[in-house]
Design goal:
- It is built from 15 helices and 13 strands.
- It is α/β, with parallel strands linked by helices.
- The longest helix has 20 residues.
Length: 382
C-alpha cells in the first residue's frame, strides 16, 4: 500500500471523489511508456511522475540542445549536450523517488518496438515525425495497448486517445482511422522548420498526462473517438469525431498488416524510387567551389524566417513555392539546393527534376547543420 509520506504526497488527489485511495492505488500499480522526452514528453513525464504512476519508461535517443530549452521544461542550460533520458531521470527521481524510471536510449523502429511497448500498460506518443506515429499506432493496435496521441505546430495542438478498450469490449478508433494515409513529407513541416510557441508544448503534454491518468484509473470521459484541436493564439477548441474504419489495414474487418512494416518507406514513398535519383554534394566541396571562384547557384528551400536566422547566401525559395518559381533557377551552371538537414532539399530536387527537367541540381548533404559542423562553426544552430 502506501507509506505515510506517500499518503501526504498524494493527499490532494486522494481527496478527489472520483479518484480516492482506490484510484491512487491503480496509478501506483500502473506503467506508462513515454516516447520522446522533448516538448510533449517533458511535461507529460513531469506530471505523471508527480501523480504517482508506479513505473514510467522514457524512450529517446537525443541530447539536449540549446534550442530545446524554450519548451522542454525538464532541462536547463547545464544539460546542453547531455542525454535527455539520463537528465530526465535525474529530475524525475528528485521530484518523486517513489516512481521507478526506466530508460530506453534508442531510436524506435520496427525491430524493437513490439518488445519495448509490450512491457507497459499504455503509451504516450510525444514524437514529432510521421513514421514514428504510424509505427507506434500499429504496435499499440497489435499489442492491444491504449495510445495517448499529441501533436503541436506553431500555435496549434492536437490530442486524442487511440485504441482504448471500451466498456463493450471493443477498441476505440486509432490513428489510421483519422489519417489512413500519410500526406507528402513536404506538407508536414516540423517545429524545427515552422516554429512552436513553448507554452503550447506544456499545455498539450499536460493534456496527454491527464488523459493517461483517466485511462489508468477509469475515471471521467476520455478523448477516445474525438480529436481535440486547440488554438492557443485565439484560445479556441474544436472537436472532430472519429469513427472506426472497416477498411483500416491494421484493425479493420480484413486487416492486411499483421506485423510492423517499413514506416520510413511507407511515409516517404518517393524517396525509395530511383527514377529521379538525387545527386549530393558535401559542404566542404561547396566551400571549395566558393574559394576557387567557380560559378554556381545556391537555392535555399527553407522558410524565410529560417533563412533570416542563418544562411550561407543564395536565393531563398521556400519548398512550397519552388515549382512555381522554377524559372529563377539556372540551368547552365551547377545549382546547390539546401535546407536545414537535407530532407526538404531532396524533395525539391525530385520535383524540379521530374516536373521541370533539371539535370544540374545537387543536394547539400546534411543541409545548413552539416555546413555549420564541417565548414563554419561560428554560424548559429537552431
Amino acid at each position: 500500500m502506501f507509506t505515510k509520506q506517500e499518503l501526504l504526497r498524494y493527499s490532494r488527489q486522494i481527496l478527489l471523489p472520483d479518484l480516492k485511495l482506490e484510484g491512487q492505488q491503480k496509478l501506483k500499480q500502473s506503467s506508462v511508456l513515454v516516447i520522446g522526452a522533448g516538448g510533449l514528453g517533458a511535461p507529460a513525464l513531469y506530471y505523471l511522475t508527480a501523480a504517482g504512476v508506479g513505473r514510467i519508461g522514457i524512450l529517446d535517443f537525443d541530447t539536449v540542445d540549446v534550442s530545446n530549452l524554450q519548451r522542454q521544461i525538464l532541462y536547463n542550460s547545464n544539460d546542453i549536450g547531455l542525454l535527455k533520458t539520463v537528465k530526465a531521470r535525474e529530475r524525475l527521481e528528485t521530484l518523486n523517488p517513489n516512481v521507478k524510471i526506466e530508460l530506453h536510449q534508442c531510436i524506435l523502429n520496427a525491430e524493437n518496438a513490439m518488445g519495448i511497448l509490450a512491457n507497459y500498460d499504455i503509451v504516450i506518443d510525444g514524437s514529432d515525425n510521421l513514421p514514428t506515429r504510424y509505427l507506434v499506432n500499429d504496435a499499440c493496435v497489435l499489442l492491444k495497448k491504449t495510445l495517448i496521441y499529441g501533436a503541436i505546430f506553431q500555435f496549434e495542438g492536437q490530442v486524442s486517445v487511440f485504441n482504448e478498450l471500451l466498456t463493450d469490449g471493443n477498441r476505440g478508433p486509432n490513428y489510421r482511422d483519422l489519417f489512413p494515409q500519410p500526406p507528402p513529407p513536404e506538407m508536414v513541416p516540423s517545429c524545427s522548420e515552422g516554429g512552436v510557441i513553448g507554452v503550447l508544448a506544456g499545455i498539450i503534454g499536460s493534456m496527454q498526462a491527464s488523459e493517461a491518468i483517466k485511462v489508468l484509473t477509469g475515471i471521467g470521459r476520455t478523448l477516445s473517438g474525438r480529436l481535440m484541436l486547440f488554438d492557443s493564439l485565439d484560445f479556441t477548441t474544436r472537436f472532430l469525431n472519429i469513427k472506426c474504419n472497416s477498411d483500416n489495414p491494421v484493425s479493420g474487418n480484413k486487416p492486411s498488416i499483421h506485423k510492423l512494416i517499413d514506416y520510413q518507406e511507407f511515409c516517404n514513398p518517393t524517396h525509395s524510387k530511383e527514377d529521379y535519383s538525387v545527386k549530393e554534394i558535401m559542404p566542404t566541396e561547396v566551400k571549395k567551389l566558393l574559394d576557387e571562384g567557380i560559378a554556381f547557384q545556391i537555392i535555399d528551400v527553407r522558410e524565410s524566417l529560417e533563412f533570416g536566422l542563418v544562411n550561407i547566401g543564395g536565393l531563398n525559395i521556400p519548398l512550397k513555392s519552388v515549382e512555381e518559381k522554377a524559372t529563377l533557377i539556372q540551368r547552365n551552371i551547377p545549382v546547390v539546393v539546401l535546407c536545414k538537414s537535407g530532407g526538404r532539399s531532396h524533395v525539391a530536387i525530385e520535383k524540379l527534376q521530374q516536373h521541370h527537367g533539371f539535370t544540374n541540381l545537387l543536394n547539400l548533404k546534411g543541409g545548413i547543420l552539416r555546413w555549420i559542423d564541417d565548414v563554419d562553426q561560428e554560424l548559429m544552430r537552431y
